[in-house]
Each structure stands twice: as C-alpha cells, then as structure tokens.
Design goal:
about 400 residues; mainly alpha; Growth Hormone, Chain: A; globular
C-alpha cells in the first residue's frame, strides 16, 4: 500500500485495467439474459434448463470469489486477476461453440469461476494501488464500472444478438478479457504490499483468521457478509423480475426496459459517488442507504399499477442500493488488513453472489406458487432490512 498522495504511473495503469475488467463483469451480467432466447431456440433448451444455466454461472462466480480471494493474497492480485480474466475469456469463446444444453451449463459454471475470481482481485489491486486516504473513493469509482458495463454492454450485446448472432456476443466477450489479461500481466505491477507471497500454511489459514482467531474480526466479517448478501441479492432480484412483473401488470415490454435503464443510470452515479460519501460520513452511509432501500422496496410493491410511481421507485432503488453496494465495498477495503484483504473481499463477494443466485429463485418460486407480485416484493423487502440491521451492528463495533 502506498503512503504518499502521488500515484505512480504503473498504479494508474493497474487502476485502468481494474475498471475495464469490472466493466466486462457488468457486461457479462447482461449477456446471458440477452442471448438466452436465441440460445434456447438454436440448442432446443427449455426454460427450466436455461434457468439452471443462469444459476450455474452465479454459483461458479461465488466459488470463484472464494478461491480468487485466497489465491490473490498468496500470489498477488495482479497475477490472479490476469489468470482469472484469461480463464473467463477462453470459456466465453468456448461457449460460442456450444451445440447442446450440457455444454453451456458446464462452460458457464467454469466461466463464472473465472469472473468471480477476478472480482476480489481487482478490488484488492485497486485498494493497494492508492494511498489509504483515497481508498474509499477509488473503490467506489472502480465498482461503478460494473453497472456502467451492464448499461453499455446491454446495448452492445443486444445489437450483436439482433443483427449478428448470439455466438458473436460470446466471441467479443471472450476476446476482450483475453487481450486485457495479456496487457495487464505485461504492463501493470503488483503494489509493494502484494509482492511478497505467503506460505501454503498461511494461505490455508486465511479464512481461519477471518472467521476463527479474532472474535471481533470474525463478527465484523460475518456482518459484512450479511450486508453483501442482502444488497446484491436485492439488486439482482428486482432487475431479473421487474420487467416480467410490469408486463403482467399490462405494461409494454419497452416500458420495462426503460425502467431498467433508469435503474442502471441511478446505480452508476450513486456507486461512483459512494466512496466520497463514505469518506465524509463513514458507515452511516451504509446504514441509511439500506434502510432507504427497504422503504423503497415497500413503495415499489404498492405502486406496481402506476407506471410512473414504479419507475421512480425503481430508479431510486438503483441510487440507494448502488450507494449501499459502494459503501459496503469501501467498508471491506478498510476493514481487512493487506495480508487478508483479497480473502476478506472474496468471502464478502461470494456472499453477495449467493444472494444474487437465491433471491431471484425465491421470487420465481413465490410467483409460481400463486403469490402476487406485491406479496413477493414485500417479502423481499426483508432482505435489505436485515442487511441494514447488520450494518448498524457493524458500525457499533467500530
């Protein structure tokens, strides 16, 4: 970690690569949703099987976050980030050659491991590349590239799928991380705090340090994982299901896409500013954003019949949950010492990935069992509320 207020040129290069890979992560979040109808038709895949493919990718990302964090603390964040991006890119290219259901299921699982492993690595690399006084704002700016990538990638992938083919979505989505991985490995460097590798015994004990040896660190790590689970799970649940819910309310599909666009724009702006607010107001930003997200989930659930109110609620959810995600990442960047920072962020991000996997499934299960959209969204509001309570306890433990 650097102690002065000047960024070395190689640190700037490393931050640029972190931002670009975060954008690719966000773009991939849209790729499957956009290509799913075309893949299902070409490969004769049913809706339930496509659902398994979505879940497999997220499961792989959760596993990858755990593994990537451990490996980044041992071998250096840059090395692991380059390797994870390379793995993801190769699996994306292989997905373009899929010819039956089992192939994308397996490939997307392994690709998820690569992409999930990249997340704690680029967050740790960004945190270690800047002075401590800049860390919160830089992590917020880097993570803002994720919703930015989802926003830009949605348009680009949509154009490719409509005017070219679904295979080209994965071809471009594979070539880009491979090129970035090679350039990253050549031109970026590990910050000084990450150049010393640890022994295998120390590598095996990192999760033990986070969850076993220090009671205060253990409780704070668990609370942060609850926050990540809630904020990322809620974001995923509403993004996946709200367009379908609005169509069931007799709105046009274009209106559902417009709501998602406003939601994404709100998330981009608030995520980018989250680090600045965290520096100024501390952990209160995390608590307030999650409590506001809880209230907005209630507002959304009771306003589904009025498009303008639903759209405003969705946009504000993007603002405040995006702010909460940014503040949660900033909290992790300051909470974990350099020797376990990647492992800690990986564990927290794995919790968020499991939230992304489980809440959309729970919403779908509720709707398929006769619950109304209002009832399902009201029930889902419990998740940001629990995360807000965890954030309060996390702040009290400072």
């Amino acid at each position: 970690m650097q102690n002065n207020d000047a960024l070395a040129p190689r640190a700037v290069v490393a931050l640029a690569f972190c931002c670009l890979i975060a954008m690719l992560d966000g773009a991939d979040a849209q790729a499957m949703a956009i290509t799913a109808p075309l893949m299902a038709k070409d490969l004769d895949i049913g809706a339930a099987q496509m659902g398994l493919t979505f879940s497999a990718s997220l499961f792989g990302a959760a596993v990858g976050a755990l593994l990537g964090g451990q490996l980044a603390d041992r071998f250096g964040a840059k090395t692991v980030l380059a390797g994870a991006a390379m793995l993801f890119g190769l699996l994306q290219l292989a997905t373009a050659l899929a010819d039956r259901f089992e192939t994308p299921l397996l490939l997307r699982t392994i690709a998820g491991i690569g992409l999930g492993g990249a997340t704690p690595a680029f967050l740790a690399l960004a945190a270690a590349s800047v002075p401590t006084t800049w860390r919160s704002r830089i992590l917020g700016l880097v993570w803002a590239c994720f919703p930015l990538g989802a926003f830009v990638g949605g348009f680009f992938n949509g154009w490719l799928a409509q005017h070219r083919s679904w295979q080209e979505v994965f071809i471009y989505g594979g070539v880009a991380p491979i090129v970035l991985a090679l350039l990253l490995y050549i031109f970026a460097s590990n910050p000084s705090a990450e150049t010393t590798t640890s022994s295998a015994a120390n590598a095996r004990s990192r999760l033990g340090r986070l969850l076993g040896e220090d009671g205060r660190l253990r409780s704070r790590t668990i609370l942060l994982c609850i926050v990540f689970f809630g904020v990322f799970g809620t974001l995923a649940g509403i993004v996946v299901w709200l367009p379908s819910i609005l169509i069931d309310q007799n709105f046009e599909p274009a209106q559902g896409r417009a709501v998602l666009s406003w939601h994404a724009l709100g998330a981009i702006v608030s995520t980018a500013l989250g680090g600045f607010f965290f520096e100024k107001f501390g952990g209160r930003v995390l608590t307030i954003s999650l409590l506001t997200g809880f209230m907005l989930m209630i507002a959304l659930s009771v306003s589904l019949s009025v498009f303008s109110l639903a759209a405003i609620s969705m946009m504000l959810l993007g603002v405040f949950l995006g702010l909460g995600a940014s503040a949660a990442i900033a909290t992790g960047g300051l909470l974990f010492a350099p020797k376990v920072r990647s492992s800690g962020l990986g564990l927290a991000m794995a919790s968020g990935r499991f939230g992304q996997m489980l809440l959309p499934s729970a919403i779908g299960l509720g709707l398929s069992n006769g619950l109304t959209a209002t009832e399902v969204l009201l029930a889902s509001a419990v998740l940001p509320l629990i995360s807000a309570l965890a954030a309060i306890l996390l702040n009290l433990s400072d």
